[in-house]
Design a protein that fits this description.
The protein is mostly beta strands and about 260 residues long. The chain has two domains: about 150 residues, Thiol:disulfide interchange protein DsbD, N-terminal domain (Immunoglobulin-like), CATH 2.60.40.1250; about 90 residues, Immunoglobulin-like. It has two helices and 20 strands. The longest helix is centred in the middle third of the chain and has 14 residues. It is globular.
Length: about 260
């Protein structure tokens, strides 16, 4: 079972030591790279975009100037954390979530824009807490030291973000769904050589299905993912996630037959 859940109050020590909105680069442009950097207190962990068998992923609600929008967010490869028979995916210590804010409108002379976001989180240790952080940054007010520090943080995390699966290294040959009335199983078959190097697979959420993460199996040439449909009308057209090869993650998306 998941640990007891409470909402955080001002009297409690917060499990998040620091949360900040970072801007990478010296000026706002039509595409501005940004990041949310979160530092956790020892022992606490925050969830990945797919929390696994329990938990709630972080949610970012952006507050941007008119004419600005943000891309889909990118997360580092998470840890696999086991609790009895449950498997969850998350981060201890710290995490950096990357995004890109774009605009098609020209900035007015002397215009100073502000980027803001509300980060809604769940973090767990012996118990779980819910909370929110309000983040704001004025890019025009950043000093050179601020820009260098943000870039240093991004550099520390660069190797932890999943890479695109190179067709010459990791190619999913087939993905087949085997159905029964109450349970499905997706089997991904890989070419012989790269399949022998795959250590694990962390799936993304599958709409209309509940994944049994504790029973995902990796064997030579195959990954098996058990799912339970949420409704009789649930359909499955593709499976996506992060392949773990050694210490490196690779993003894959495979059509399901």
């Amino acid at each position: 079972m998941m640990a007891p859940l409470t909402s955080i109050s001002g009297a409690q020590d917060k499990p998040i030591r620091q949360a900040e909105l970072l801007v990478f680069g010296e000026a706002v442009s039509d595409r501005t790279a940004v990041g949310i950097h979160i530092v956790l207190e020892p022992g606490w962990y925050m969830y990945w975009t797919n929390p696994g068998d329990a938990g709630i992923p972080p949610e970012v609600r952006w507050r941007l100037p008119a004419g600005f929008e943000v891309s889909s967010l990118r997360y580092p490869v998470p840890e696999k954390i086991r609790h009895g028979g449950l498997v969850v995916y998350g981060y201890h210590d710290e995490v950096l979530i990357l995004g890109e804010i774009s605009t098609t409108r020209p900035l007015k002379a002397g215009e100073k824009v502000a980027f803001a976001a509300d980060l809604h989180w769940m973090v767990c240790r012996e118990s779980c807490l819910l909370g929110r952080e309000s983040l704001r940054v004025f890019p025009a007010n950043l000093k050179p030291a601020d820009i260098r520090r943000a870039e240093d943080i991004r550099t520390r995390f660069t190797a932890r973000f999943p890479k695109s699966a190179d067709a010459s290294i990791l190619v999913a040959a087939t993905a087949t769904a085997v159905k029964s009335p109450s349970r499905w199983e997706v089997e991904i078959a890989f070419p012989e050589k790269p399949a022998s190097r795959i250590d694990d697979f962390y799936p993304h959420p599958v709409e209309g299905f509940v994944i049994d993460h504790s029973r995902i199996s990796v064997s030579p040439g195959k990954i098996k993912i058990p799912l339970t449909p949420s409704a009789a009308s649930s359909t499955l057209t593709e499976i996506s996630g992060t392949l773990i090869v050694g210490s490196t993650g690779y993003e894959v998306k495979v059509p399901v037959r």
